[in-house]
Design a protein that fits this description.
Chain lengths: 198, 94, 537
């Protein structure tokens, strides 16, 4: 039996999967839009509680990681295995840093009782409860996707090392890159909607 | 064997794309410091939309793929926006 | 590889790969075996859910407590709905006949991602197992209905969590199947098979696959939000915390309405395959059938609010959804006209698949026309949440997808199993089933208009007469089902063997390959020159 190989088909499949993620997060944005339209002031006050500096740093490093993974694909296409591995490692480190930042951000919110179910939050009114409910759900699911991305990077790194991914067969790297850019895309919208409303 | 020619994006281009994205991020942060009411959200979303388009076109390679991919992405975005619009037929008019 | 066991010599049923016995099935990446795995799973769970339905109808044969109380009744209709919707009709024809026949009908050896295809089935099974745990754990089976409406779904102590999480996992099965089919159709059509030379069943699978991809994530996130409500009190649907329960309904139906098009489109595709063959005439209006498929898939995204007319939406939303609902009926009507026009002046071959196809049109029309009563705002207020709705959706889903599934299995059976079923028993089963089906569901329209609510274990004495007729109909219908299933199951194992490639005189590619097909379907991928259904000789 001949092994069927179709790189374009694989890419198409990945894009279709990306569409599912766009719809998944998209519906969360719909929920956000509905509740923000109902509680504009509370959402503004909620945004004030978030750390713009931290959010901006996370935005910058995530964009940087998109570049590094895109570059790693160019490197593999040019046959430069070492550079590809280096760029992938940087991408991976940034992903971990993002999660560490997120951990500290969330920690601070928990300390002040902004987490869902906290008695302090329940005192603050419907709009604020909804704002923080959405904040934790949306950044939480986003963070889960970063975690999955880290897993993918580790796998792809290992495959490049073993020369299973190389100059004439790099679909796995390309598709992982697409996944990572999706994670970046979601953050591009999450960031202003939560951190930049004052 | 992959039959299509692989377009390789230069490192230079990718750095410029990042710079563009960083500049837009900076504008986004700065512009939302000003008090413009509903225009704030509009401005922030517009800039986010431009950043997203740049990521899709260069990092996600849509600019260099068959037009079909870009068409599909646009169609999905349109579908999503229509769902959002129809949902607000309820919420805006209660 | 030995002569006797290579991919082109031996039927897919006999082929020996690296696994033996049961493992050779549950680890097989052969699209045909995967189709059968879905079929067998569905056969089992359909029987379970049908029995639940029968128990419900038995409870309703008289007012008051007959065989069960309200809590049990509520758990029964919940499980009946969950099984029928998520385990039977949503996977439905795509999972069984799509998997089995899509590659063959477009001239391919398998789907684009065979391993992902197997994973789809595994997600399906794991999802089912998780849902089943909800029935047996401490706090009792869920009693929310398959719709899990907020706020009750996060307030009830019953086991909602495993039920919604199981449904969430099953969603991945649907998504992966959708991705597989879109890529397969784009990339693996045989040389010469242009888009408009592709038969109509693959076209409907294509439209359906897009809905699977773009709508399923919506129910995914909605169910996750219910989990978040139950576990951490997130507040998004809880009015006490500022949430809007109607937003839950929006999110739920934004998936669940397109989902009904996942259910019906491939059914319509199967009917479009069968009618030309048994009329010895090409399909009337092939392009219109394609365009109406795409139109239904697209417009179907924007009608979800018609499930919510009495929930408290704005006036503007009411008008918009009602208008769009009437719009989406048009492409379906076009299909009915075209099927009838195909039969007109055709040479009709009165055999089992054709009986199912024609009766499909009858029940589908009743379902569709009563949908207009529901889509119209003023009448909706009167019949919402009554048995009128129950009748409507059973006609359109059971009558629609169910009859189409029966038509498809009786059409494609010889090709799938290399055996023929007993036609007399099949026709008898069909007849008894058809009488029972109508006796069961037609009275419900009347009962609903008269005011009998749905999802209640009891009713006013005024409704007793109609309920007696309906419940007796249930028993007749189930007798029909027993005959049909017994015939098919017996025949799959002991039926008259056949290697006739084309018992019905069909023109599509599956009738040119071996009966049953070999592992890779084609010795050599054909080159296509003609359109499908070419009966012009």
């Amino acid at each position: 039996m001949t092994v069927h190989r179709d790189d374009l088909g694989d890419k198409m499949g990945m894009w279709l999967f990306i569409f599912t993620e766009l719809l998944l997060f998209g519906m969360l944005f719909v929920v956000y839009a509905v509740y923000r339209s109902m509680h504009p002031e509370a959402f503004k006050l909620g945004g004030d509680e978030l750390d713009v500096v931290m959010g901006t740093i996370n935005t910058i490093i995530l964009l940087l990681s998109s570049m590094t993974v895109a570059m790693s694909i160019s490197a593999i296409q040019k046959g430069n295995k070492k550079l590809a591995l280096t760029l992938l490692t940087i991408t991976l480190i940034i992903a971990v840093v993002f999660l560490v930042n997120k951990y500290f951000e969330w920690g601070a919110k928990f300390e002040y009782g902004f987490n869902p179910g906290a008695p302090e939050l329940l005192e603050l009114g419907h709009g604020t409860i909804l704002f923080f409910g959405l904040y934790f759900i949306m950044t939480g699911i986003h963070a889960l996707h970063i975690l999955i991305g880290i897993g993918l990077f580790i796998y792809v790194f290992w495959q490049i090392r073993k020369d299973k991914i190389h100059q004439t067969d790099y679909v796995w790297l390309e598709n992982t890159g697409l996944y990572w850019h999706l994670v970046d895309l979601i953050w591009i919208f999450l960031f202003p909607l939560f951190y930049l409303i004052h | 064997m992959s039959e299509e020619k692989h377009h390789i994006v230069s490192y230079r281009t990718q750095v410029f794309v990042l710079l563009a994205l960083l500049v837009l991020t900076g504008i986004s942060v700065a512009i939302t410091q000003l008090e413009m009411g509903p225009m704030n959200t509009l401005a922030a979303m517009l800039i986010a939309g431009i950043k997203a388009t740049i990521v899709l076109a260069w990092f996600m390679h849509l600019k260099f793929e068959s037009r079909f991919f870009a068409f599909m992405v646009s169609a999905v975005v349109v579908l999503f926006l229509l769902v959002l619009l129809v949902t607000f037929f309820d919420y805006s008019y209660r | 590889m030995s002569e006797a066991n290579n991919a082109h010599n031996v039927s897919y049923l006999e082929y020996k790969g690296q696994y033996k016995g049961l493992l050779a099935w549950i680890f097989s990446t052969d699209h045909k075996r995967i189709g059968l795995l879905y079929l067998y799973t569905m056969l089992f769970f359909f029987s379970v859910a049908a029995i639940l339905g029968l128990l419900m109808k038995t409870q309703l044969i008289a007012p008051g407590y007959t065989i069960m109380g309200p809590q049990t009744y509520n758990s029964l209709f919940t499980l009946h709905g969950i099984i029928m919707i998520f385990i039977i009709v949503v996977p439905g024809l795509p999972a069984v006949f799509g998997n089995f026949f899509l590659p063959i009908m477009i001239g391919a050896k398998d789907v684009a991602f065979p391993k992902l295809n197997l994973l789809s089935w595994w997600f399906y099974i794991i999802g089912i197992l998780i849902v089943l745990t909800s029935q047996f754990m401490g706090d009792g089976p869920p009693d929310t209905g398959w719709t899990f409406y907020a706020p009750y779904s996060f307030q009830t102590p019953t086991n909602v969590l495993p039920a919604v999480f199981g449904a969430f996992v099953m969603g991945f099965s649907s998504i992966l199947t959708g991705i597989n089919f879109v890529v397969t159709i784009h990339r693996m059509r045989a040389p010469g098979m242009t888009w408009f030379k592709m038969p109509l069943f693959p076209w409907t699978l294509y439209g359906t696959a897009w809905i699977q991809i773009l709508a399923t994530p919506v129910i995914g996130i909605t169910l996750l939000l219910i989990v978040a409500e139950r576990l951490i009190g997130i507040g998004i649907f809880d009015p006490a915390l500022g949430g809007d329960p109607i937003l839950y309904q929006h999110l739920f139906w934004i998936y669940s309405h397109p989902a009904v098009y996942i259910m019906i489109l491939p059914g319509m595709g199967a009917i479009s395959e069968i009618i030309p063959v048994f009329s010895r005439k090409t399909i009337f209006g092939y392009k219109a059938m394609v365009l109406s498929t795409m139109a239904i898939a697209f417009v179907g995204y924007f009608v979800w609010g018609h499930h919510m007319f009495t929930s408290g939406m704005s006036g503007r939303a009411l008008y918009a959804f009602s208008f769009l609902t009437f719009l989406v009926a048009i492409p379906s009507a076009i299909k009915v006209f075209n099927w009838v026009s195909t039969m007109h002046q055709g040479s009709l071959h009165m055999q089992t698949p054709f009986y199912w196809a024609v009766s499909f049109i009858f029940v589908f029309m009743i379902g569709g026309l009563t949908g207009l009563v529901l889509g119209s705002l003023a009448t909706n207020v009167h019949v919402h949440d009554t048995h009128f709705v129950v009748a409507h959706f059973h006609f359109i889903v059971f009558g629609g997808t169910g009859f189409a599934f029966m038509a498809a299995i009786h059409y494609w059976f010889p090709k799938m199993f290399g055996r023929m079923y007993d036609m007399s028993w099949a026709n008898l089963g069909w007849g008894i089933f058809f009488i029972g089906f109508n006796t069961l569901y037609l009275p419900m329209f009347y009962l609903g208009i008269m005011g009998m609510p749905r999802r209640y274990y009891d009713y006013l004495p005024d409704f007793h007469g109609g309920n007696i007729v309906s419940s007796l109909g249930a028993w007749v219908m189930v007798s029909g089902i027993v005959i049909i299933f017994a015939n098919l199951i017996r025949s799959a194992r002991h039926g008259e063997k056949t290697s006739d490639k084309n018992p019905w005189g069909g023109k599509t590619l599956e009738w040119q390959v071996d009966t049953p097909p070999t592992l890779e379907n084609f010795e050599e991928i054909p080159t296509i020159v003609k359109g499908p259904y070419d009966y012009e000789d």
